[in-house]
């Protein structure tokens, strides 16, 4: 009975490892005992980072959403900046899906698109534009359904992916300008911005290893630089924001 359980567990582990990494690397590392095969170790690290980013993306913007709900305010958040970021994220997710890239290479885009669209909606909702907010969510859902379907011309997705680089930069820099103009980062969440920065850094490596697509690599490089600027602003305006919160209380 014990032997059967071990065999079943081994079979399950082999199946999961082969699906997540590759069957070749399972045979190389566990059947042949070559645990330090360079190519397989690199692939294992890449896949691990990729799936780690996806798991993190499920909750990466949750602190920001909770902060908006808790304060019932979208102060300091720019709808235009969120919209530009959402277009870039959606373009990357749709492009990865249609290109047939491994899910570990683009999967977080789907979760981040959902959360970013919710933040954009809340930005409108808490600024007294509830009708526009619901209209925006409906229109976005319809557009994404089309982009993920075979009916959307692939040339459009390529164009969107090419445009995602300036869109990413524009969205992030718009938010950075908004922060600078207000001398405050308002309801921006430190945890969310830190996770976005670390995730984009890791994505540069995984994109090089898994896709080799220069458009994707450049997009994440630009995203890393812009996320770094906003993260720096949070620390720079930290005392000013704390004083504003204390005065409001």
UniProtKB/TrEMBL annotation:
Major place of residence: membrane
Entry membrane topology: Multi-pass membrane protein
Transmembrane segment boundaries: 49-70, 77-97, 109-126, 133-149, 186-205, 217-238
InterPro entries: MannP-dilichol_defect-1, PQ-loop_rpt
A Pfam family that the UniProt record links to this protein: PQ-loop
Any one of the GO CC terms: membrane
Protein family membership: Belongs to the MPDU1 (TC 2.A.43.3) family.
Compartments, record wording: Membrane
The organism of origin for this protein: Macrostomum lignano
Keywords in alphabetical order: Membrane, Repeat, Transmembrane, Transmembrane helix, Transport
The protein's name: Mannose-P-dolichol utilization defect 1 protein homolog
One BP annotation, GO: oligosaccharide biosynthetic process
Keyword presence, Transmembrane: yes
